Structures are given as C-alpha cells and as structure tokens.
C-alpha cells in the first residue's frame, strides 16, 4: 500500500539522516549495511545481580567477499568481546576470539554454546523487553549499529551451560 507523499518524503529524510549517522538500523527491519545483515538479534536476560550477559544473532553476508567482525561495543556494558565456546579436554570453555568470519553469500550464527558477543560489566541491570544498542566493527572499519531486545533464553536439556558463573577480571 503506497504511503502518502508527505509521509514517504519524511521517511526518506529520516532514512537519509540515519544512513548519514552511521548506518543506524530501523528497529522494524533487520539491521543491514550493504555488506552485512543482522537477523534474530537478542540479548540474554540475566538476573539483576549478574554483571555479564551475552548477545546472539545471525550475521548474513549477501556480498561477494568474505567479511569479518573484529570488534563490538554497547553502551549497556563497559566491555564487549567476541567469544566462542571451545572444547578443551572435554570441558566447554569460553574464549575470546579476534574475529568472527562471515563467508561471502553465507551466514554465521551467534548462538548459545557457540560464537557470541559477551557484554561485560553491565552499566545497569537489563530488563526483559528492553532494547540494547550494539555496534559491530568490520575489518574494513565499517560499523553497523542495531538494537537487540532483551529476552529470556530457555536452554535445552535443563542445565544452563551459559554464562551464569562466568566472570572476567
């Protein structure tokens, strides 16, 4: 259904302003640059006493060259790190990684038990339903800023092997 001209014109100006402001994504649409699309983003709801949480999403690369996320930040946390879970002698451990690769024409899932973003030293407790702003930095120094809702994550198998007891100092 076409929008009235005045609304479309205003939306165009807002879109232009957002593009100029650093590729800030509109909440209704998946976040995207020409390079990278963010889908199904969420931040894990944690108890108010917790100082860390994790962010998950699917990174989709519609382009013709491989991409890599090399850094991330969020005003919700003092530190944001790229992490993976690795099997060390049969024990799953979280490790910081230098980058998260997204192959050309492919997707990389950031999910519990695998790659994810750690939000460390939260500046305030996160309430379920809140939006958390996250900025990803690509190896090309391009940035992509988007909002991810805070949601509870039910972990299959009963035991939460997530981030409850994980502390960085």
Automatic annotation (TrEMBL):
<dbReference type="InterPro" id="IPR036182">
    <property type="entry name" value="PCuAC_sf"/>
</dbReference>
<keyword id="KW-0732">Signal</keyword>
<dbReference type="Pfam" id="PF04314">
    <property type="entry name" value="PCuAC"/>
</dbReference>
<feature type="signal peptide">
    <location>
        <begin position="1"/>
        <end position="27"/>
    </location>
</feature>
<dbReference type="InterPro" id="IPR007410">
    <property type="entry name" value="LpqE-like"/>
</dbReference>
<protein>
    <submittedName>
        <fullName>Copper chaperone PCu(A)C</fullName>
    </submittedName>
</protein>
<dbReference type="InterPro" id="IPR058248">
    <property type="entry name" value="Lxx211020-like"/>
</dbReference>
């Amino acid at each position: 259904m076409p929008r009235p001209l005045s609304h479309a014109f205003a939306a165009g100006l807002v879109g232009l302003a957002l593009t100029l402001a650093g590729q800030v994504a509109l909440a209704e649409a998946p976040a995207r640059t020409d390079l990278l699309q963010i889908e199904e983003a969420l931040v894990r709801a944690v108890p108010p006493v917790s100082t860390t949480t994790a962010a998950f999403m699917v990174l989709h690369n519609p382009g013709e060259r491989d991409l890599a996320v090399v850094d991330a930040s969020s005003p919700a946390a003092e530190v944001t790190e790229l992490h993976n879970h690795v099997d060390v002698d049969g024990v799953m451990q979280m490790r910081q990684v230098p980058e998260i690769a997204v192959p050309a024409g492919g997707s990389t899932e950031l999910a519990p038990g695998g790659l994810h973003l750690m939000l460390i030293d939260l500046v305030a407790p996160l309430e379920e339903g809140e939006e958390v702003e996250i900025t990803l930095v690509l190896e090309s120094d391009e940035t992509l800023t988007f909002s991810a809702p805070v949601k509870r994550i039910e972990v299959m198998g009963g035991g939460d092997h997530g981030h409850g007891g994980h502390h960085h100092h």
